[in-house]
Amino acid sequence: MKIQAYLAFKGNCLEALNFYKNIFGGEIINRQTYEDKSIDIPNSYRDKLQHAELKGKGFHFMAYDAAPDTPLTSGSNMYMSIDLSSEQETERIYNKLSASGRVHTPLQNTSWGAYYGRCSDQFDIQWMINYKK
Question: Is the N or C terminus of the chain more exposed, i.e. has fewer CB atoms within 10 Å?
Fold first, then answer.
């Protein structure tokens, strides 16, 4: 079994994937637009991503631009979680993800022996950043 995250965006999926690629590395693969699909979608949305994946060392997730009539509500019931291997790497990733987003839990030492923080990025994706000491 393999469980993967599939992120939905409001027309800015490629921008988001490039943002994550800049932070995590990896490659955007399997990029498909709505261009040649026989789906009831506005012509202005045809160049948006119907499917794409960001894959790199230790991570792989999928993403797409939800159709304009698909209701998307930013919520707090799902987080992307990252386990890192150093405090410096944790700070670098956390600072980049939260820079134009929101800090929910500043980076701090925790009772479970980790350096941890929680934030939302500029695309309203929620992140939990953790370095187990």
Answer: N
